[in-house]
Amino acid sequence: MKLNSPLRRAATVLAGALIGLGGAAVVTSPAAAHDSTVRGEAICDTATGTRIVTWTLTNDWPADATVTDLKTTPTDVEKAGEGNFVIPGKTGGRNGELVLTQKVTGGDAKEATISFASLWSTDGFTDGKNSARVDLSKPCAPAETPCVEAGQAGFHHTFGVTGNGSTATVTLNDGVKLCEGEPVTLVSYFAPKPQFAVPQYEYDHDSGTIDNEHRSVTLNVDVPDCNTQVDLFFGGEDDIISEITENGSRYGDKKLGSKNGLGGRSKGPQGWYNGGTKGCQTPAVEPLSQCDGTVTLNLSNNGKISKYAIDFTVKAGEFSKTVTVAPGKGETVTVPAGAGTITVSAEGMENVTYDWAAPEDCALPTVIVENDCDTVAITVENPEGVTPATAKITYGDKTETVTVAAGKSEKVTFKAGKATYATVEFPGLDVEPIKATLEKLDCENGGGGGTGGGDKDEPSLPVTGPVAGGIAGGAALLLIAGGVLFVIARRRKITFTA
């Protein structure tokens, strides 16, 4: 059957229109579905006072879209891994969303913003009109943490002693807020022994206070170069025990690292130390020899670290004595003459040994020589305040030895011979022997000077005649005078000093 021409033409036009509309739909529908959006949301982290902004980017097209030209304020978003951000396509069970996180601290920022473009690599389509903002004007502050009363807070610490110093660090535990500051002190002491013993005397201290602004303190003290104790305890300068005595106060469980009590709140090593290698005394001995043979020992205990009494023991032969010298003081011990080698001992000191030696300024013995035609007399005099002197006296081939006490004298007599001198030695004294020269006498002429003429071996003839009487009178006077001179001439005295 054939249609009439008008109807046929109308049908042809309608079919062409439908085909054109269908083709247009196929071409334009993908472009209309390329779309990306973004929305934001902010929450406040009350634990830290940080606002966390979450940005959700969406992709309505089945193919993945790469994010480009990403900009955020006031901070960058967190990025996991390397490479660009990609919004997954909405297909195959994927939701077509990419979530980015932005953290904003502080209260200055009033808003957060984001802007970006999306690129679909499958067809090169770009959507560059994506942006959003989130209001941050509401305050965001950490929640108020209740404070902890004194004695309830937790701490941790370090403690050590090295060389001549000690260091400790005490720190408040995280998350703890103190209602008031907590003082802590490190103190060192002189000690009588390397183990715990009393009395102890404060040497150095350092105190600090832990509070919410200063959550950690480091303390340092010097340690004495002798036996010591060091303590780390909860308390301030007013709580320091300056002298630890037998029945006095103790820090007890206030020491950090204790099992219980205030000190048990801090975790760490024991906050106390006892040790040392020598006593806190300075014993010293000064021996001085005396001229009388005694030895004076000056015992002292006045050094920089002398905090305890010292017992000095002095021994010499049968002599023995123990003397206690208080700190900062001195004592004197006299060892009798002739006691022998002296030994002084004390804790913290090597033994001191000493032998008496004659001082250089002691008075020396004197020697007096008297001789006449019959005898030679040697007298040794020893002064007061000196040791007994032993004198070895030699005249000719004869030798005598005498000991002369202090303030005394001893006399030795020899028969006169041809020797013209005597020698006196002092074996116990550091002096040269004395050579004592005798007075020269004319003993063959009665101790005088000669016969008045002629040969001395030939006596003069007596004088006779008228003048004999006058001569005899003069001779009588001369005889008397000569007798006096003879007595004087027979006893000549010379003194020598050793």
From TrEMBL:
Superkingdom of origin organism: Bacteria
Stretch forming the signal peptide: 1-33
Transmembrane segments: 467-489
Region feature Disordered, mapped onto this chain: 252-275, 442-462
Swiss-Prot/TrEMBL keywords: Membrane, Signal, Transmembrane, Transmembrane helix
Entry keyword Membrane: yes
Protein name as catalogued: LPXTG-motif cell wall-anchored protein
Source organism of this protein record: Pseudosporangium ferrugineum
